[in-house]
Amino acid sequence: MTDPAGATKIVLDESEMPRQWYNLLADLPAPPPPVLHPGTLQPVGPDDLAPLFPMALILQEVSGDRYVDIPDEVLDVYRLWRPSPLYRAHRLERALGTPAKIFYKYEGVSPAGSHKPNTAVPQAFYNAQAGIRRLTTETGAGQWGTALAFACAQFGLDCEIWQVRASYDQKPYRKIMIETFGGVIHPSPSPLTQAGRAILAEHPDSPGSLGIAISEAVEVAAQDPETNYALGSVLNHVLLHQTVIGQEALAQFAKVGMSPDVIVGCTGGGSNFAGLTFPFLREKIEGRMDVTIRAVEPASCPSLTKGVYAYDFGDTAGMTPLMKMHTLGHDFVPDPIHAGGLRYHGMSPLVSHLYELGLIEAVAKTQRECFEAGVRFARAEGIIPAPEPTHALAACIEEALRCKETGEPKVILTALCGHGHLDLAAYGAFLSGELTDHELSSEEITEYVAALPAVPA
Ligand SMILES: Cc1ncc(COP(=O)(O)O)c(C=O)c1O
Predict the structure, then answer these.
(1) 225-244: per-residue pLDDT in tens?
(2) Whole-angstrom Cα distance, residue 108 to residue 388?
């Protein structure tokens, strides 16, 4: 390569793939508040989590070790698509007329088409190693369900998935993809569980939510000793697995002798954002890098920017432990926007803690501004983004246009955490002018957070 800084694709060799996950907990200036048992309100211990997760994952959840080795069996599967490319968006920069240098780390090259297999594979591996036969889970847009079905097929596990009804209807090809990998999929709320039946009795036309689908998957796993539950975001071990993204990106920037001034990533439960940014946060905390890190969420589900920072359940029925996080209340059912993966009432406790510490910023974007950014990106770069990362792209374009005004040649990095090939109906709705914007009002938020569980300070 004659001019590395001018390259379009910065790629790593398989031999340069990270062999450890990075645990940000080891480097934080203050630890996050503990996760509590909802009955005793005492910090949960490994035994409380054992009915749902294998011990290897429980230990990763609470680990204070800075680095955790990635098992060889997981590395073998990662090699199907990792290391993923880091792209320089030359064409988008030209289209915007900005002096900014825009980079995107593309996770759409994975079997599911997103970052989700980075954690699905180790979760399936550790469960298979522990003798578990079946995994249950929820899925929003279907990226996580597809990833887990793929990962279960790699390690000989059965996989049963509850997909949020709104997305199940909007994205029918996800179901076929999941079934092709051998998974079983139900729309949620479903009549198969007590949690689903209770919601259907009150709201027969419920569009569903990630919180409801989690309740259904947890209920089924808790009743069968050979079945465990797998979560696609939010928890520390999930965020840990995703740090392969940011570690690779750091190495890729080092190859071209650059480093980002601004990083933007979309946040549903926080896993792709954490995966990209945590290794850069380590550099920031240790004073080696001066970088602004910004989370982007939907205006219709603004947990970080408008939610309260309080203990809440991770699911709607109240079956999970209590986590201190930014939340809109576990009863909150978001508007059925097309970025199904961002329709979660809460936020990862770790990402929430970083926001409280002032280490990251957050903004909210409306759906139409995001699709406009997605279309602009697609026309310039040739990749149709999943609706979720269009939120990051909208914030990325906003930053690049600010640079155009100020003349600053900032280096902007964003997470293109998935492609939108199975989300084309959403693009169709946008292109034909059918998409509407919905911004959550303060009155609505006050109503939902009033139902938060009481936890003494
Ligand atoms: C492509 C994509 N991006 C982002 C998300 C949001 O989840 P997280 O915040 O955990 O990355 C999802 C969730 O399904 C997704 O499918």
Answers:
(1) 999 999 999 999 999 999 99
(2) 12
If you take atom 5 of ligand 1, which residue's CA is the nearest one?
Answer: 341
pLDDT at 2: 47
Alpha-carbon distance of 220 to 361, in angstroms, equals 37
In this structure, the number of other CB atoms found within 10 A of the CB of residue 194 comes to 10
**8-state DSSP, 5:** G
Whether 141 is in the pocket of ligand 1, judged by its Cβ within 6 Å, is yes
**Cα separation of 71 and 295, whole Å?**
30
Residue scoring higher pLDDT (204 or 5): 204
Tell me the backbone φ, ψ of residue 172, rounded to 5 degrees. -60, -25
Which residue matches tokens 């699709």?
A: 371
Distance 12 CA to ligand 1 centre (A): 24
Residue nearest to atom 7 of ligand 1 (CA): 268
Pocket test for ligand 1, best of 114, 118, 337 (most atoms within 8 A of CB): 114
CA nearest neighbour of 219 among 118, 137, 123: 137
- CA 444 from centroid of its chain's CA atoms: 25
pTM of this prediction?
0.97
Average pLDDT over all residues of the chain = 95
Tokens, residue 419: 């492609």
Residue nearest to atom 4 of ligand 1 (CA): 388
Atom of ligand 1 nearest to the CA of 271: 10
Nearest CA, atom 13, ligand 1: 341
Q: How far apart are CA 293 and CA 94, in angstroms?
A: 24
Ligand 1: which of 84, 209, 233, 237 to mutate, most ligand atoms within 8 Å of CB? 233
Contact 258, 6 (CB under 8 A): no
Q: Is the CB of 271 under 6 A from ligand 1?
A: yes
Contact by Cβ (8 Å): 412, 261: yes
Atom of ligand 1 nearest to the CA of 269: 9
Atom 6 (ligand 1): residue with closest C-alpha? Answer: 268
